[in-house]
Predict the 3D structure of the following.
Amino acid sequence: MTATPCEVSWFSALCDDDYEFLGVPDAALQSSWEHCRNIALTAEKGGFDNILLPSGYALGIDTLAFAAGIAPLLKRMRLLAAIRTGEIWPPQLARQLATIDQMLGGRLTVNIISSDLPGETLASAPRYRRTVEVMALLRAQLNGEAIDVDGEFYRIKVDPPRLRTVSGRCPPFYFGGLSEDAREAAAQGCDVYLMWPDKMTAVAEIIGDLTARAARRGRKLRFGYRVHVVVRETEEAARAAADRLLSRLDAPTGEAIRAKSLDSTSAGVRRQAELRATASDDGYAEENLWTGIGRARSGCGAAIVGDPDQVLAKLQAYQALGIEAFILSGYPHQAECDLFARHVLPRLNHAPLAG
């Protein structure tokens, strides 16, 4: 067991991303209030520290509406609510976030997504500049500061909302992106830099690069890692479970699923494709890191596959590189959440990240 605690989060499939067999829709696993609520309650019961509520414009159910609905049902766990910066008016969003934080007793965290406005296509550089403006505006408002800015994208003069978060401070911003523009935005505005699965050497390089970028701005970042898991009592059983996930997937269906995402051409998605293309014949990029899941989803496209000892060792190896927060998921999400909670979570020294 490592001495330094890490935050361990699960994932509630608000964006129609839950399957027993990847690429085969199942009405019982489609995003709905009941299904996503059950995943969240399973994660709370299992002892997870936080849960990511993802956001997609065309897919699934609304993130902030769901967060407000689930908040009174949770007694301990945090919520990591994803917000799409191209779709919001920052002063209004600040009020919404403060309200949900009050409902949670101060346990809200925020995942910043650098999105377009639906129907708009903004080039990468200005889109990320807009995201930096949004983060600065939200942080000021949620810290109780008035806004008087004449920026590139926003011209706002407004007092902070009367309602404050429980702490009186802005919740931590989690943010990911692999492009040059995304890395610069992260260094300027986020608190926790999230990365998708990659080889150990690449993870170390990314941590080193983002640490240096933030330091040049007098800032420090913490680091998180978003990855799927397939854990079973034996490695053989885990690999069989992974193979079963793909047993009904055909290539055209997988390609269609990947293309449906609004971020399907991003640098991060391209890197996941590269990782998959250079993996071994059975889909492993390195020991216990399986890229098969990426055949049927855009974004986070690999899983840690193994027995409890192997999965624990892999997570602890990431911790040794500097990862302090994990956002995990598996298929079906509720069942895999329970398996990880029973087999691995009690052996991890974990706690919510300090604010």
The radius of gyration is 19 Å.
